[in-house]
Amino acid sequence: MHRLVRTIAVALLLLSPAHGQDTDSTSHTVQFIAVDNNVKLEVLDWGGSGRSLVLLAGLGNTAHVFDKFAPKLAGAYHVYGITRRGFGASSAPSPSADNYRSDRLGDDVLAVLDALRLNRPVLIGHSGAGEEMSSIGSRYPQRVAGLVYLDAGYSYAYYDRSAWSAGIWEMDSYQLQQGLRQLQFGNGPPDARPLVQEMLKTILPQIEEDLRHLQNDVEETPGRFAAPPTTSPFNPAMLAVMEGGQKYTNIPVPILAIFALSGSLLHQSDVEGQATAFEKGVPSARVVRLPHAEHYVYRSNEADVLREINVFVRSLP
After folding, report:
1. Domains present along the chain, CATH in parentheses
2. Secondary structure of the chain in HEC code, one letter for each residue
3. Do 235 and 62 contact (CB within 8 A), yes or no?
4. pLDDT at 9
5. Which residues pair with 80 in a beta bridge?
């Protein structure tokens, strides 16, 4: 069973030396680029020539997680990597949802593209980086040539209630929390009526539906929503990123979405449901399902991922 169980729990579970350890074992240059007031991001450059590819790490990782994968792309492309705010050597603003909202993170990536003078690169993101890519693709589709989701096309990247999962519950619950915070302590808009109406007519009914789904899941397996044990130190920025999640439903750019089908962490029926929803809801997407793949799919199925990326990038104008 997976049901996209708490993105943060999955991330913590996968951040083990065998899966998610960040290394610095390849030749690259490092620079720090200002993207906001008092915020600089670590940017790696593995070199290469041709179309620009920008690698975005999953939640909890840094750009160094691609140190072994990026050189495999640098033979045909110019490859960069970005460490998001709050992680690694990048600046870490206070862990509020506003500082880590999906669109804020997407704007950070755009600021790096501007600083590097990259014209319509291809963004390649793993896991939680799906939200940055969807933010950019939905708001500024002209800024990128294409997007590649490496097991990153879940509810934080493409929201579709027809493929219900615990990830949908997360998105809805965070939206409810954001609305409640706006109504507390004088933080609401000057006219709070539209917000209250949205919460009554849309958000609360969605929460009620989510709870009915969750009730069925809990009755089947009472402990299935418990967070897995971990010895990894908790970074408050991880929760801030999740609380700053936004719902993306329209991403009008060429897309390659690779979903990892695994019998252990990802329950195949749940992943298939999200993959099918992505396929139906995003006409510009080519959806690839890789059986016996792990969440770090660019490691477990490196040859498959490289092949699919090459075919996709070469198809772009």
Report:
1. 7-160+240-315 (3.40.50.1820), 166-235 (no CATH)
2. CCCCCCHHHHHHHHCCCCCCCCCCCCCCEEEEEEEECCEEEEEEEEECCCCEEEEECCCCCCHHHHCCCHHHHHCCCEEEEECCCCCCCCCCCCCCCHHHCHHHHHHHHHHHHHHHCCCCCEEEEEHHHHHHHHHHHHHCHHHCCEEEEECCCCCCCCCCHHHCCHHHHHHHHHHHHHHHHHHCCCCCCCCCHHHHHHHHHHHHHHHHHHHHHHHHHHHHCCCCCCCCCCCCCCCHHHHHHHHCCCCCCCCCCCEEEEEEECCCCCCHHHHHHHHHHHHHHCCCEEEEEEECCCCCHHHHCHHHHHHHHHHHHHHCC
3. no
4. 40
5. 45, 54
* The pLDDT value given to residue 284: 96
Enter the pTM of the model. 0.83
Name which of 45, 314, 296 is nearest 150 in CA terms: 296
CA 316 → CA 144, 147, 301, distances in Å?
11, 11, 23
pLDDT at 1: 33
As averages over each run of 10 residues, the pLDDT of the chain (317 residues) reads 39 40 75 97 97 97 97 97 98 93 97 98 98 98 98 93 72 81 76 88 83 77 64 80 91 97 68 93 97 95 98 97
What is the spatial distance between Cα 106 and Cα 83, in angstroms, rounded to a whole number? Answer: 12
Whole-number Å distance between alpha carbons of 297 and 119: 27
Look at residues 222, 144, 142, 207 and name the one whose alpha carbon lies nearest to residue 176. Answer: 207
At 131 the pLDDT is 97
Q: Which residues pair with 79 in a beta bridge?
A: 47, 53
